[in-house]
């Protein structure tokens, strides 16, 4: 029996789950329109309710203005749960598409990375750092092969009013995508998103992530040292030097020297493949 979300929505199948939330399909009873409803258990979040308020505040600030960022449609709460209602993405996570394909063709990877980076630039320009960019938080709007990709999950995001690098020091994120400065606790900001984009690009091109190690300790040490390789050769032989150079650029260990989203977008790998309108093909 479907549960009834306060008055207006009826929830259906589970779409996904993360650290604190279960996301379910929800139908708006009056209009028959489908949404994705993030259900957050207040007990589980005890003491961290501010994280949800932060997620809502950030989404209100940015999501309606960009076609590649999930839109928060509605929000309400009951005694036990908090509910965030989003426009539904029916195409699944980028993570699952990479796993299904094995890896992406370089031109397709460049197209996706350019789109995501433009949305990251939009987020950064609004003074926000996402801090949890990874293929589980990048969703396809529809099931179509060329569906728009959407940045989701602003649960760990922060508003950074000043261009200061040293504001945030807590350790958070998903280890494989976390930048060296997060582990070093030297302060972090927008550059952590660029690092994560480097890891995502590597994953798209090869089908596996660069810092996978036997233990979390070894993984952390590899990240801090920027110790990764474009190996085994068989996974990289069809990848261009320009693509590898782009990955290297984003995986600059020093956050001060790491490119900004704007600089990454200007890299040859993304700038040269930007589709141009052809008048007379
Ligand atoms: P958490 O903070 O717990 O990781 P997310 O916001 O990432 O929560 O949501 C968890 C999962 O639910 C996502 O990885 C995705 O699979 C699914 N999901 C989230 N938002 C949507 C949406 N708008 N449409 C479809 N599925 C979604
Ligand atoms: Mg998530």
UniProtKB/TrEMBL annotation:
This is CAMK/CAMK1 protein kinase. The chain holds residues 1 to 281 of 388 of the full protein. Keywords: ATP-binding, Kinase, Nucleotide-binding, Serine/threonine-protein kinase, Transferase. Belongs to the protein kinase superfamily. One of its GO terms (molecular function) is ATP binding. The keyword ATP-binding applies. Residues 9-270 form the Protein kinase domain. It comes from the Eukaryota. ATP binds at residue 38.
């Amino acid at each position: 029996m479907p549960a009834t979300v306060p008055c207006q929505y009826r929830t259906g199948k589970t779409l996904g789950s993360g650290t604190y939330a279960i996301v379910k399909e929800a139908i708006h009873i009056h209009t028959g329109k489908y949404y994705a409803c993030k259900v957050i258990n207040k007990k589980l979040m005890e003491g961290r309710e501010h994280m949800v308020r932060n997620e809502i505040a950030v989404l209100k600030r940015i999501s309606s203005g960009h076609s590649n960022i999930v839109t928060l449609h509605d929000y309400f709460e009951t005694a036990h749960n908090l509910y965030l209602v989003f426009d539904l993405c029916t195409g699944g996570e980028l993570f699952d598409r990479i796993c299904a394909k094995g890896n992406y063709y370089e031109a397709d990877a460049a197209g996706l990375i350019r789109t995501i980076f433009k949305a990251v630039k939009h987020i950064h320009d609004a003074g926000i750092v996402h801090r949890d960019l990874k293929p589980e938080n990048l969703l396809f709007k529809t099931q179509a092969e060329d569906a728009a990709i959407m940045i989701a999950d602003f649960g760990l995001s922060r508003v950074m009013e000043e261009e200061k690098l040293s504001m945030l020091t807590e350790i958070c994120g998903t280890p494989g995508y976390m930048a060296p400065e997060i582990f070093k606790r030297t302060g972090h900001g927008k550059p952590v998103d660029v690092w994560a984009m480097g890891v995502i690009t590597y994953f798209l091109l090869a089908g596996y992530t660069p810092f996978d190690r036997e233990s979390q300790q070894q993984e952390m040490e590899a990240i801090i040292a920027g110790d990764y390789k474009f190996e085994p050769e068989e996974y990289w032989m069809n990848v261009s030097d320009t693509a590898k150079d782009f990955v290297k650029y984003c995986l600059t260990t020093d956050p001060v020297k790491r490119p900004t989203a704007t600089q990454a977008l200007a890299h040859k790998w993304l700038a040269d493949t930007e589709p141009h309108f052809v008048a007379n093909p």
